[in-house]
UniProtKB/TrEMBL annotation:
Source organism, top-level taxon: Bacteria
Membrane topology of this protein: Multi-pass membrane protein
Protein name in the entry: RDD family protein
Segments passing through the bilayer: 21-45, 57-75, 107-126
Pfam families (UniProt xref): RDD (PF06271)
Record keywords, A-Z: Cell membrane, Membrane, Transmembrane, Transmembrane helix
InterPro entries registered for this protein in UniProt: Pra-immunoreactive (IPR051791), RDD (IPR010432)
Domain RDD: 8-138
Compartment(s) where it occurs, according to its Swiss-Prot or TrEMBL record: Cell membrane
A single Gene Ontology CC term: plasma membrane
Length: 146
């Protein structure tokens, strides 16, 4: 139950987000590079043309890799590396561990939360439970472990 945990502060969440963004970006770049090498080798091409099917599928593939990065950490212990550094943990409203479904909704709505100039994230400042839009939709909560 979320009442058992102290809510994480805005600044701690921001710190963990920055840390995790840098790690996720590195992960996506490395895996994306090797994936492109494999695709280019399989199809015997020297470069990928803009507008080609491979180029059109690359961005959704990078989004998928990002989801796998965050989803795996969230469903296996509830902490990304940035969250561990800032002593934060993602918990479900009804149980401690979250499901892949919750991770999917959280990931998708976290992207949507950025669209209106980060309003979905800033919502936690005025919310009584200190939840963002994607916390509410995915029925999750960022707890401060310290």
């Amino acid at each position: 139950m979320i009442e058992d945990f102290k809510a994480a502060s805005f600044m701690k969440r921001l710190g963990a987000m920055f840390y995790d963004f840098m790690l996720a970006l590195s992960f996506v770049m490395v895996v994306g590079f090797f994936s492109m090498v494999v695709v280019m080798t399989i199809f015997s091409i020297d470069s990928v043309e803009a507008g080609s099917p491979v180029a059109k599928m690359f961005f959704p593939y990078l989004l998928f890799l990002s989801f796998v990065f965050y989803g795996w950490f969230w469903t296996h212990g509830g902490q990304t590396l940035g969250m561990r550094a800032w002593k934060l943990k993602l918990v479900g409203e009804t149980n401690i561990r979250i499901t892949w479904g919750q991770a999917f909704f959280r990931f998708c709505y976290a992207i949507i939360s950025w669209i209106p100039l980060g309003a979905g994230y800033l919502w936690m400042i005025v919310d009584k439970k200190k939840q963002t839009w994607h916390d509410k939709v995915s029925r999750t909560y960022i707890a401060d472990l310290k």
